[in-house]
Each structure stands twice: as C-alpha cells, then as structure tokens.
Amino acid sequence: MAKELIVVKGRVIEQNRSFTPEVGEDIGYELGAKMIQRWHRENPDDVLASFTGRNLIENILAQPGCTGIRMFNAINDLGIKQLVLVGVDKHGNNILEYTTIGDNGNIIKHKGIVGDRSAICPPSCGQGDVDINWAD
User: Fold this and answer.
1) Collapsing DSSP states into helix, strand and coil, what is residue 113?
2) What is the C-alpha to C-alpha distance for residues 38 and 135, in angstroms, rounded to an integer?
3) Cβ atoms within 10 A of the Cβ of 23, count?
4) How far apart are CA 83 and CA 89, in angstroms?
5) Do 19 and 86 meet the contact criterion of CB atoms below 8 Å apart?
6) pLDDT per residue as tens digits for the range 78-110
7) Cis previous bond, 44, omega within 30
8) pLDDT band at 34 (very low <50, low <70, confident <90, very high)
9) Dist CA 80 CA 124 (whole Å)
10) Could you tell me the CA-to-CA distances from 9 to 6, 36, 80, 115 in Å, in that order?
C-alpha cells in the first residue's frame, strides 16, 4: 500500500494512501484502551462511543464498488455528536449514488446509503467493561 506523510495538529504522521479493503488493522486492547482513555479524559462530557448494527454496515458494504466505510464526525439536531457512515470506492470517493442494470436491461439509479441513528454511549453502553475499563 502506498503511504503518505500528512500534518495533523502540527504533527507529521504516516498513513496509508489507499482505499482498499485492507486499510486498517487490529491495534489490540492495550493501545485501543489507551486511546479511548485519552479521549475520555480530554472530553469527559462528550459521547464515548457509537453503536451501529450489522445490517446497516453490511448494506453499505454491499453497494457496488464499495471497498470500505468513511465515518464522518457530525452533530445531530439535538447538538449531540454522531458518526455518519458512507461507503467509499477504490478511488476514495464517497458512494452517494450508483447504478445497476435491471432484469429488462434498463439502468436503475440508486441513492447511496448515508447512515446514522446509531446508539450513543452513554447511555447505551451495555454491561461489562465498555464504560468501566475503557474509559477510566
């Protein structure tokens, strides 16, 4: 995968410059917990997490040409932080519309899926270590 150097908050970081299904990796519990704890310390009154169900994620990924999902930070009508999910193609373009061929050979235009309405934590954190160990 091609890499690029970018500047974020005054720091130079390296990231993948690819929009393939392989982008992203398992960072493990320790690093994940450290990052989540840092967020929670710096933003104690903000949303800790969002839950999106499998059906929406699979429907976004099932769109023709979709190689992954872009997650936009957003604010809903109540002023609460949310994530808006959009499919992305291999060129890094958001999939906002796509075409398919119908049974009779006609071209059918579809709107791309733009997902939200996830459950936010808190209050919907579940039980166990979601809101205890990760955010301490």
Assistant:
1) coil
2) 8
3) 14
4) 19
5) no
6) 888 899 999 999 999 999 999 999 999 999 999
7) no
8) very high
9) 14
10) 10, 18, 24, 28
Residues 94 and 84: beta-carbon distance below 8 Å: no
pTM: 0.80
Q: Is 36 within 8 Å of 48 (Cβ atoms)?
A: yes
Question: Which residue in the block uniquely carries the two structure tokens 């995968």?
Answer: 1
Quote the tokens at residue 32. Answer: 């994940």
Taking residue 69's Cβ as centre, other Cβ atoms within 10 Å add up to 19
20 neighbors 90 (Cβ within 8 angstroms): yes
Q: Above 90 in pLDDT, residue 113?
A: yes
State both tokens at 107: 């071209």
Instruction: Give the C-alpha distances (Å, rounded to integers) separating 66 from 28, 35, 120, 126.
Output: 26, 28, 26, 30
